[in-house]
Amino acid sequence: MTAKKKSRNAKSRAVSLPGENALPKETPAAALPAEEETSVPARKERSFDFVNRRRWWYLLSLLVIIPGLFALGFKGLNLGIDFEGGSLIHVRFQNAVDTAEVRQALNEFGLEKAPVIQSTGENEFILRTEELSEERNGQLLAFLQQKLGSLSILRNEKVGAVIGGELTRKAAYSLIIAAILILLYITFRFEFRSGVAAVLALIHDALVVLGVFAIFQIEVDSSFIAAILTILGYSINDTIVIFDRIRENRKNYPRMDMAELVNRSINQTLARSINTVLTVIFCLVAILIFGGQTTKIFALAMLIGVISGAYSSIFVASPLWVDFLRWQKGKRKAFAGARG
Amino acid sequence: MHSRGSLIQLVAVVVLVVVAAAAAFNPIKQNINLGLDLQGGLHVVLEGVDTPDAPVTPEAMKGAMAVIRSRIDQLGVKEPIIQMEGDRRIIVELAGVQDPEEAVRVIGKTALLEFKSPQGETLLYGSELEDAQAAINPSDNKPEVHLTFRPKGAQIFAEMTTKYLHQQIGIYLDNELLTNPVVREPITDGKAVISGGYQTLQEAEHDAIMLRSGALPVKLEMVEKRTVGAILGEDSLKKSLKAGLIGIVMIFIFMLAYYRLPGVVADFSLIVYGILVLGILALLKATLTLPGIAGFILSIGMAVDANIIIYERLKEELRAGKTLMAAIDAGFGRAFWTIFDSNLTTLIGAGVLLYFGSGPIKGFAVTLGLGIIVSMFTAITFTRYVLRLIGRSRLVTNLKFYGV
Question: Measured between CB atoms, does B291 come within 8 Å of chain A?
Answer without folding.
Answer: yes
